[in-house]
């Protein structure tokens, strides 16, 4: 048990002495503790079930009940206070907590059990009785002055009655324990210290009850706590924000809490995202750069375009153009034999950057323009032939990613763009394919082969034939060092030689003519 020291009040007011309060293992005011509530409810439920399941017994002599009824408790309080006036119990509905439900039995006739008493009846001049589920009751011996000073709800109810000793009853409490803790905080000088020992979920419950009781100082202390404490996980963050937004009490400052998840800056997304993209692309540390690329791509995928600036694509394309200019400059330097080792490393970095930017554009369904730009890089494709394999093969990853995107339907370039892409970059990809398989950990040969085949099959049949016959020569000479497009080759073969569509169309017209003649 803990004691709260209360200062003496003026004459003609009730003298407030030390009020004993039960304390949880965490050190917070609680009467009864969560474990006590659970044990009491379980034992009450088990006894009820046992009585219902037990066979009928012969009548026994009546015994006086061991538990004191709520009215007998009130009567004993009258004797202790030596009041001449009769004591009246005022039943108070809990404001906006639980909707009323039809009951088989009147509230007055329900069996009630005082689970625990809180406070000192000898020094109190008011009682608050909390009625929970199944008639589960908690009695609090409190003081009018404390209730009136801290709670608008209690001040209003007490002003309606002129009795010297008031007894207020709150029915249908969702969580009587939280009510006890909140009322106990009215006796506490440093609420922040008490709240520090609690978790976020419990403070949110206290905040809800404090608002129902009009306990403004407690509301502010809870908000100060929530503003300072870390929120663990998205679920807890959502609970805090939803609880704060539901607050209807005027004059409380929720803005500091909401600033954690909202910004008052004017149109910050484009500038912020541009800054992030720039920092990632210019990173010198390979591992950190790779990890942040993965994280940013995942976050953009989860966001799925929501709350992202519409002109963000312009920023991505601007970065793509910078990378392309850098690659072209590096290819020219490498072809002239200047700093071959440095150029090779930088080409690999820029190729990886281009591939990542293409992933971002594909997620945003805005990669068609990139496919046009890449298909027209004829100067870069010519320089590609002049560089050693080890220096150039990374750039073919960009071509591979484009074919995968077209095969998946992530981008839908025009027929001319698809044909130009295959004409410009397919042969360089064939030449680098063996190095890509063995020198690039993230390279998926099966996926690339499927993408190339599907892209070829989207072209007119004559273009399919030209490209696949060219592939056949490379495949027969290169073997595993060349992409395996056999599935696409089979589809083209069936389209061309096994009952071609032109023959089927002719047969269909003949059948139509014969049917019309009949």
TrEMBL record:
Coiled coil: none annotated. May act as a substrate-specific adapter of an E3 ubiquitin-protein ligase complex (CUL3-RBX1-BTB) which mediates the ubiquitination and subsequent proteasomal degradation of target proteins. Residues 273-499 form the At3g05675-like ankyrin-like domain. Keywords: Ubl conjugation pathway. Pathway: Protein modification; protein ubiquitination. This is At3g05675-like ankyrin-like domain-containing protein. Pfam families: BTB-POZ_ANK-like. Residues 43-68 are annotated as: Disordered. It comes from Arabidopsis thaliana x Arabidopsis arenosa.
């Amino acid at each position: 048990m803990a004691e709260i020291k209360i200062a003496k009040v003026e004459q003609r007011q009730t003298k407030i002495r030390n009020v004993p309060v039960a304390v949880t293992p965490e050190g917070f005011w609680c009467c009864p503790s969560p474990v006590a509530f659970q044990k009491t409810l379980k034992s009450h439920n088990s006894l009820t079930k046992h009585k219902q399941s037990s066979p009928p017994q012969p009548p026994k002599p009546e015994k006086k009940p061991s538990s004191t009824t709520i009215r007998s408790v009130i009567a004993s309080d009258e004797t202790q206070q030596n009041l001449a006036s009769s004591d009246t119990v005022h039943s108070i509905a809990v404001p906006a907590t639980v909707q009323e439900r039809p009951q088989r039995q009147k509230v007055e006739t329900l069996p009630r059990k005082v689970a625990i008493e809180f406070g000192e009846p000898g020094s109190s001049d008011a009682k608050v009785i909390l009625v929970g589920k199944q008639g589960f009751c908690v009695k609090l011996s409190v003081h009018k002055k404390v209730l009136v000073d801290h709670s608008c709800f209690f001040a209003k109810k007490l002003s309606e009655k002129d009795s010297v000793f008031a007894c207020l009853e709150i029915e249908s409490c969702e969580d009587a324990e939280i009510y006890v803790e909140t009322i106990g905080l009215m006796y506490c000088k440093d609420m922040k210290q008490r709240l520090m020992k609690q978790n976020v979920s419990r403070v949110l419950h206290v905040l809800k009850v404090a608002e129902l009781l009009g306990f403004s100082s407690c509301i502010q202390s809870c908000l100060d706590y929530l503003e300072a404490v870390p929120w663990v996980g998205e679920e807890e963050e959502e609970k805090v924000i939803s609880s704060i937004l539901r607050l209807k009490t005027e004059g409380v400052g929720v803005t500091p809490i909401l600033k954690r998840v909202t910004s008052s800056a004017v149109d910050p997304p484009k500038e912020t995202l541009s800054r992030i993209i720039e920092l990632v692309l210019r990173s010198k540390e390979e591992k950190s750069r790779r990890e942040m690329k993965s994280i940013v791509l995942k976050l953009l995928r989860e966001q799925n375009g929501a709350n992202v600036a519409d002109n963000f694509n312009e920023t991505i394309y601007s970065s793509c153009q910078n990378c392309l200019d850098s690659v072209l400059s590096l290819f020219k330097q490498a072809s002239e034999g200047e700093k071959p080792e440095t150029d090779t490393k930088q080409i690999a970095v820029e190729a990886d950057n281009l591939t990542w930017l293409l992933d971002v554009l594909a997620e945003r369904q805005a990669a068609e323009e990139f496919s046009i730009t890449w298909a027209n890089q004829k100067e870069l494709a010519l320089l590609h032939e002049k560089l050693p394999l080890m220096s150039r093969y990374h750039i073919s990853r960009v071509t591979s990613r484009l074919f995968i995107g077209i095969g998946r339907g992530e981008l839908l370039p025009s027929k001319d763009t698809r044909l130009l892409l295959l004409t410009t970059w397919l042969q360089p990809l064939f030449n680098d394919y063996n190095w890509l398989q063995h020198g690039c950990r993230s390279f998926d040969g099966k996926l690339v082969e499927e993408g190339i085949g599907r892209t070829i099959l989207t072209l007119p049949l004559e273009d399919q034939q030209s490209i696949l016959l060219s592939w056949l020569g490379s495949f027969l000479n290169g073997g595993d060092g060349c992409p395996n497009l056999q599935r696409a080759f089979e589809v083209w073969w069936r389209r061309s030689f096994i009952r071609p569509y032109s023959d089927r169309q002719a047969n269909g017209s003949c059948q139509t003519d014969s049917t019309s003649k009949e």
